[in-house]
Amino acid sequence: MEAAQSQDDVLYAGELEIRPGGGLVLAGGRALTLSVREFGLLVALVRRSGRIVSRSELYTLVWGNELRDGDRSIDVYVHKLRVKLETALPAWAFIHTHVGFGYRFSPEASHVFHNSTTSR
Amino acid sequence: MEAAQSQDDVLYAGELEIRPGGGLVLAGGRALTLSVREFGLLVALVRRSGRIVSRSELYTLVWGNELRDGDRSIDVYVHKLRVKLETALPAWAFIHTHVGFGYRFSPEASHVFHNSTTSR
DNA sequence: CCGGTCGTTCACACGGGGTTCACCGGAACG
DNA sequence: CGTTCCGGTGAACCCCGTGTGAACGACCGG
Questions:
Q1: B24 vs A102: CB contact, 8 Å cut-off?
Q2: Which residue among A61, A66, A114, B12 has the highest number of C-beta atoms inside a 10 angstrom radius?
Q3: Spatial distance between the Cα atoms of A24 and A46, rounded to a whole number of angstroms
Q4: Looking at chain B, which residue has its C-alpha nearest residue A53?
Q5: Which residues contact B47 (CB under 8 A, 6 or more apart)?
Q6: Rounded distance in angstroms from the CA atom of residue A37 to the C1' atom of nucleotide C6
């Protein structure tokens, strides 16, 4: 499980502000509603920003025990997280898949179709 | 197969930064998306920088068994790697062919057409 | 009880990855 | 030169890893 951190440290990642001690996530100033698992997963990823984290490591960090073969919980929760993050901040992509390796957290501009700002 | 290395050693080669334990490659600071095979091949080559590595040795290192006669996997994956590396760092050539012998990894300035910086 | 949320699991869809094949051009060789 | 060998390259193919919607049961507050 995640090592306990001081109650008042704050993580920043792009437009995100995360208070691991308070269970709070602000996306562009607005609060996100995350479940316990979603929040734990996000914190685990953010604390390892830029690195690829394997599924089994993520599972151990957030769920607290070993990832069983065939368990898809990680995939499902990554998806739930992505949906909420993208809903809040459509212009950004945060969680990147590295097939065969795991997931990497890094705020990057999403490849939005170039509706040129001058369109129409 | 590759000998296990400490999880946090880092290989540098020109503009490349490679974390064998983390499955991550940074090219000029930006993360590259490599498949498992591509990554293994790159690591094997970088760990032998400057030396010529035969196809069969590469195959044994990355695939874990003997290279069968007529198997072109190495060629294909060298090509895939080259494409991704060149896309990320057009000014550099990393993997050099030695016909009849194998491949040699070495970051060298590529012979780019001198589009003078004053072009356009 | 009743409705809602949450975590887990399942089923199916989908795309990326690994392998193989075919074709091509260049190099080496006689 | 003509032939042969070797590596480069694009593409077809199938499988597996991942994405995704939904069902299900546990739990909780009202």
A1: no
A2: A61
A3: 14
A4: B22
A5: B2, B11
A6: 9
